[in-house]
Structure formats: structure tokens, C-alpha cells
Amino acid sequence: MAPTQDEHSSQELLQTQVHLWHHALGFVKSMALKCAMELQIPNTIQHHGIFVVHEVASPDKEVTYGLTPTTRLLASDEVKSSIFPILSLMLGTTAITPFLGMHSWFLDEHSMSLFKKVHVDIWEMTDQDNTYNQQINNAMVSDSNFLMDIILKECGDVFLGINSLVDVAGGHGGAARAIAKAFPQMKCTVLDLPHVVAEAPSDAYVSFISGDRFKYIPPSDVVFLKWVFHDWGDEDCVKLLKNCKAAIPPKDAGGKVIIVDMVVGSGPNDIVARETQVLYDLFIMSIEGIEREELEWKKIFMEAGFGDYKIISVLGVRSVIELYP
Questions:
Q1: Could you say which DSSP state residue 123 is in?
Q2: Is position 172 annotated as part of the catalytic site?
Q3: Suppose 263 and one of 31, 47, 90, 319 were both cysteines; which one would form an S-S bond, judging by CB atoms 3.0 to 4.6 Å apart?
Q4: How do 222-226 and 206-210 pair as beta strands?
């Protein structure tokens, strides 16, 4: 029967069905990636551009797999540029399970975080569960190893002329160590919680201080925060920013805060980048975190008493922000 004017065509309905199936089956793509990472099975994920297939001209048409840039980031958790540990964290049962109860979380009017509804508060969990704490630390170190080389290459001049830097919530010092190696004259210190610092490696490049960033930040020319603010709501962020401001000298004396985080809407203007920013915002929401647009960043900057800022969008879905008192 031919469709009436008020009905959609058969092809429109079929395309809509495909669209909904595509969304519903999205988790299968994630789980296939997880499986391939854990078992190193290339043909599981070659269709997504992670491996390239070469067919050898032989009687049995032997197939070999070649590396792509994506493969190299997954090759091994022992490779410096590998993001294997952070993807493992994202795809782990601990992170995924809370999303299965998202509907009840909405009905509860967000009485507690999605993560806490299934487990405990994420910061309590890192304090109590050494294995999970180590997994997070490994993920952050791998992200720093990957990203800091790019930051130093693309906008390393943000670190010029700095004599001292405190990396707030810097974990095991991956970012601070990369900065210290690139700028040997700079004194680099990591401030983090006692259970994090207790397991941090010691070396000649970075010193570690145990402490609560919401109470005190040691004085320095610059305060550096990588992927910190998205864990917290506006009130906590303003409190943290005020502590940062108290730790640095005035702008004309070189004082500033350097933030590496997501600015939603900044960066590459393509569907994959934009969708990744939105999806990560939903992901971080599970621990009551938030990814912010520029106006949302500006609001907390001004409330904390800062005068100016500059966004440098050279890190894909993330940006470098220079914040001046």
C-alpha cells in the first residue's frame, strides 16, 4: 500500500531503524575493542581502521595485518605513547556497570552519583581499593606520556621563563616529569593525596608533596592542572581556583595557572570530535563530573577572581588554557 502524505516512506522508516540499531549496538563496538586489546586479535577490530589488511599473493591467499597510527596507540601498555591503560579503565566493569542503572538514577533525581549508586564514592574507592587506585594512576601516567609530548611540541612556549611549577593532582608525576626534562631549570613538584604519593616513583626530576588541594597549594610561579576540573562541580572548582590564585605571584611577575582539559565546542570541527566530547561529558557525569563549554569555564574563572584567560585548542578534543590573575 502506498504511503499517505502523513506517513513516512518505507525507506525513511528502514533508515530510522538502522540508525536506532546503530545506537543500540554501539556497546558491541566498545566490547570488541576491549576483547581485541586483551587478546590481541587484529581481525576483531580491523573494520574500524585499527589494523590494515594485506593479502599476500600466494596459493593459500595468506592474510597479514599491518599497523596503523591507531594500532600503535594500542600496541602495548609498555610503549610510552600507548593509551592502552586509560582505555582499559574506560572499558572496565567498574566504569561500565553504573550505566546499566542510568534510568533508575534519573528517577532518583540524582540523589547520589551514578558511580556511587553501584559502588562507593570514586575517591573513597581509590583510597580503599589499591588495585583500582593503581589502575587509575597507570591510566593517568599513560595519558600524560602520550599527551605531554604533543603539548611540549605544539605549545611548549607556555612553559618558557618559569622557575617553579606545582602539578596539582599530578598522580605519579608523568606530566611534571615530562616538563622537568624539557625545562631542566624548572623546579617541578607534584601535589597529591597521601595514598597516591606513597606509591609514586622517586627520581631526580620531580619532588612529591602529600596534601589536600582544596586546603592548600604550595607557592610556585605556575600551577598546572591536567584533567582535574572535570571531576568537580562549580563550587569545588571555584574553591580550587582560589587556592591556585593564592599560590602564584601576580601576572606581571609571571604568575599563571595552566589547565589541560576539555572545552566543549573547541578543537576540530568534525562529527567524531564533537560526539566524543559529548560522550565523555556523559561518561564523566557518572562520578558527578562535568565537561564545560567556554562560557562555563569563564564563569568559574571570574568567580575565583581571575582577570583573563587564553584557550589554545591544539590537543584534539582537549585544550590548553592559560589563566592569569
A1: H
A2: no
A3: 319
A4: unpaired
